[in-house]
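step: validate -> pass
step: tokenize input -> pass
step: predict -> running
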Amino acid sequence: MAQDLYEVLEIPPNANDTWIRRAYDRKRQEIAQDATLSGADRQAIQQAVDNAFSILSNPATREKYDSELLAVQTPAPVQVKKSGLSTARVLIYGGAVALLIGTGYVLWKRANFEEQQRIEQERAAAEVAARMQEVNARDKAQRDSLQSISGSVQKAQAKQQAIDAERARAEEEEAKKEKARQSKPDVL
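step: predict -> pass
step: emit ->
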């Protein structure tokens, strides 16, 4: 194996099918948008991504790849020349060391992936907070505008009521004067 397929898709070895699909789609989009790649480079990278996806998305081929990857990462048993350690002990120690190395690699990959996920979540949270501030500012401006309009409407209504009251008072006075004229006898 010339290249770690998990590194090609930038995912941890314990990634599920959804992660694999998302990583594949993301890598394809990155390759398509990268203007610095020439046609041959783009095709070579795309083939590597397609190959990684085809192997890792199929459970049978992924299991085979993982076993081969572990075999490559597992060091060969150390040959000890009559130092008092039996071959069985050397194999056990070698296996334990290989297991620790493999586990360390998996943990490192997982931590790296989790760190990337955390950074992505923080970025998304910051974007949401910025959008919420923008929406809140826009809502406040609209509320202020509506309050201003409402205040103007209330002032206009108060003015109209004062005018109506003045008109009603004038009409009453006019009616009283008219009544008083009608009740007075005409003196000629």
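step: describe -> The chain is about 80% helix and 0% strand.
step: cleanup -> pass
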